[in-house]
Each structure stands twice: as C-alpha cells, then as structure tokens.
From TrEMBL:
Protein name: tRNA A37 threonylcarbamoyladenosine dehydratase
GO BP annotations, alphabetical order: cyclic threonylcarbamoyladenosine biosynthetic process
One Pfam family of this chain: ThiF
Coiled-coil region(s): none
Length: 243
C-alpha cells in the first residue's frame, strides 16, 4: 500500500481520493530549464506517481540565475540526471522515465509514443521544436499546458492561464499562434503567459544552436513562477479542481 504520509498537508486540502488520482497519473515534462525544472519539482511534490522528464542539455554557468538544477558545482552535468536524482529524493516511490535528448522535430513522435500521458507540460523555449511538439500532441488529443515567453519580463503578478488563442503582449506566443494556425490549430491548448510588455532592450542574439537564435534577459523568480503555474494547471486538472 502506498505511503501518503509525506503528503499529509496536501491531503488536508484535497482529500485522500485525490491523492490516489495523482499517484495513478503519468505526467510528461519536456524541457528542464528555468520553467520546466520548477514545474517538474512541483508536479513531483504534488504526489504524481509517474513522470517522464526530457532534456538533452547540460548545466551552463549562465543557467545559475534561474534554473533549479544549476549550481556552481555541476557545470557540464546533465540537467536530466540532476533532476532525476532530485525527484527520486523527494519521492523514492516515483516511477521515473528519463530521456536525455534534445527535442528535435524528429524526436517528438518517439517521445509521444513512449507512453500514455495523462498530462504534458511543454517548457520548450525554441519555436521550431515547440511547434512540432504542440502540433503532434494536439492531433493526439493529449492534455497539455504550454509555457510562453518568460524572458524580458519582471512582474510575476501578470501571469495568466488562457487558451493559446487569447495570449497577447508576448512575441513568443505570437510566433507560436501564427504557426499553429498554418497547421489548422486555432485553439485548444492551455497556455501560461505574461501580460507584461517585454523589455526588448534585454535581447541578445545567440549562435542558433538547438533552434534558438536569440534570448532575453531573465530574473530568477519569473521562469520559476511560470513553472509553478504550469504545475498548478496539471495538478488541479488531474483532480478536477475548479479555477
């Protein structure tokens, strides 16, 4: 019999039956950067029984201002490995599948075919892989919450949970919407976004590796808030909570 004692504070709020629902759920978290790493942690701490985490990247010194796995002592180590050890330390009974792979368009189908997912958190921060992933997940009628752009913004109180069609003041979301429409997808994907105007001056150009040509400056708490909000969508939807 599963031990729910460590979730006693959660049980006070949602009840034992909902803890059982969460323990029987499988959640995929794709991308373990500033948004996805915190989302994965909160999903795990929520008592979800099976998780799949996906990321092919390693810790870089510039990750330390915002990413949960990034420390001064683990530069060059796999983010997926670090997060796997952390998640299993939180809940040793967690069934955990680890995919140490970048989310290339070719890899998306394989990841989605690996298992039946009760919910997916999309924390991919590059447009091309994100679009491929969202398009294929939507066609399979999978429940998904997708994080939009957390860079270039500072106010955590301006986050919203809406259908992708209702996002605004987010250039990243605008690109995603535009390309989803080309695939015939106009709505039906939950999105976490910020209504705050982006601070364009914080933009830098990158080398274009992993489909990412640019990046915005970030505050430590903003991607984490996006991750927490994505996790909240998943946990509340899995137990049927209203919000």
């Amino acid at each position: 019999m599963e031990d729910f004692s460590w979730l006693s504070r959660t049980e006070l709020l949602v009840g034992r039956d909902n803890l059982v629902k969460l323990s029987q759920a499988h959640v995929l978290v794709i991308g373990l950067g500033g948004v996805g790493s915190f989302a994965a942690e909160f999903v795990c701490r929520g008592g979800v029984g099976t998780m799949t985490i996906v990321d092919g990247d390693v810790v870089d010194p510039t990750n330390r201002n915002r990413q949960l796995p990034a420390l001064a002592t683990n530069h060059g180590q796999s983010k997926a490995d670090i997060m796997a050890e952390r998640l299993k330390a939180i809940n040793p009974e967690l069934t955990l599948h680890v995919v140490k792979s970048f989310v290339t368009p070719d890899a998306v189908g394989h990841i989605l075919d690996m298992a039946h997912y009760d919910y997916i958190i999309d924390a991919i921060d590059s447009v091309t892989p994100k679009l491929t992933f969202l398009t294929q997940a939507h066609k399979r009628n999978l429940r998904i919450v997708s994080s939009m752009g957390a860079g270039g913004k500072m106010d955590p109180t301006q986050l919203k949970i809406v259908d992708i069609s209702k996002t605004y003041n987010c250039p990243f979301a605008q690109q995603v919407r535009k390309n989803l429409k080309k695939a015939g997808i106009y709505k039906g994907i939950k999105a976490v976004f910020s209504t705050e105007e982006q601070i364009r001056e914080s933009l830098i150009l990158t080398d274009g590796s992993n489909y990412k040509k640019s990046a915005y400056g970030t505050m430590p708490y903003l991607p984490a808030t996006f991750g927490a909000t994505c996790a909240s969508v998943v946990l509340r939807d899995l137990i049927g909570a209203n919000y």
